[in-house]
Specification:
Elements (H helix, E strand, L loop, with lengths): L1 H9 L7 H28 L12 H31 L4 H7 L1 H22 L2 H24 L5 H27 L7 H26 L13 H26 L33
Helix pairs in contact: 1-2, 1-8, 3-7, 3-8, 3-9, 5-7, 6-7, 6-9
Length: 285
């Protein structure tokens, strides 16, 4: 990951040196070596760091792909959004932070509703609806940024942020259950660790790509009067990349279970309605 992400992060600043391309190409070889070693470790003592057999489970493999790509989208969006507001528009950190409050509220509300009400009835369609909602919010944001330019106000950002927040809430809460639906119980720990790792990896990749999709469209020498428009254009350009990534996520979600199993606190899985009631152990007083 270091060999891949470091050159992405520093590449543009250093003029895309040859060693950066060599590092990124070599990262594929190192990754292959890791896979080979994990297979050897499995054969030798059955205790690999990464349980490769999990990737034979279709829903898990697809879910991991969704986690990585979703992490890329979030990594790109949140960083360029912050720079757009604080550097491009000249807002203070407090002003920018308060602008994001509608987004946070929308995520929280939608997440609760998706897990408790929607997913049990509609399954993975809820997650796909979330991806489409985020795309709609991004397209609205692109339009507003182009129309209002550097004169855009916080209240004008509220609608696209709420739409995006609702979409994100519909995805993030039930996604883990969807990924773990068909995973054998004995590998649940390894699977959950991989989910977290892959999400962090995707976010790191997204942050690395910011130097390409955002700063790649900004000139090296800007006059103070040009900063606002340059950052607005770079922000809109970056959002188009995020739209494309979310479209890929929407397609990947077709490989998730149509009815993801739900889990309750403590790790117990909800009983299958056709399996009859779950017997309770008598309580000890």
């Amino acid at each position: 990951l270091l060999m891949l992400i470091y050159p992405l992060t520093r590449g543009r600043e250093l003029g895309w040196p040859v060693w950066g391309h060599v590092m990124m190409g070599s990262s594929v070889l190192v990754f292959g070596a890791l896979v080979a070693y994990e297979k050897y470790k499995t054969r030798r003592d059955g205790s690999p760091l990464v349980e490769l057999s999990l990737f034979k489970v279709k829903s898990f493999a697809a879910g991991i792909a969704v986690q990585i790509v979703f992490g890329v989208a979030l990594g790109v969006f949140f960083l360029v959004w912050t720079m757009y507001m604080q550097v491009g528009l000249g807002w203070t950190a407090l002003h920018a932070g308060l602008t994001g409050v509608p987004f946070s509220i929308a995520v929280s509300v939608a997440a609760g509703i998706s897990v408790q009400k929607l997913v049990p009835k509609f399954g993975r369609k809820v997650l796909q609806t979330g991806a489409l909602a985020m795309i709609a919010g991004l397209l609205l944001y692109i339009w507003e940024a182009g129309r209002y330019g550097a004169g855009i106000a916080s209240w004008q950002m509220a609608l696209p942020l709420v739409v995006m927040g609702v979409g994100m809430g519909l995805i993030v809460a039930p996604l883990t259950d969807a990924v773990l639906s068909d995973v054998p119980r004995e590998h649940a720990g390894s699977a959950s660790g991989l989910i977290n790792t892959m999400q962090q990896m995707g976010t790191a990749l997204g942050l690395g790509l910011v130097s390409v999709v955002f700063f790649g469209t900004i000139g090296d020498h800007l006059a103070p009067t040009e900063v606002g428009q340059a950052f607005t254009d770079a922000f809109r350009n970056s959002l188009w990349y995020v739209v494309g990534v979310l479209a890929v996520i929407f397609l990947l979600m077709f490989a998730l279970p149509s009815r993801p199993a739900q889990h309750v606190e403590g790790g117990a899985q909800d009983a299958d309605p056709e399996a009859g009631p779950v017997k309770k152990e008598p309580e000890l007083v």
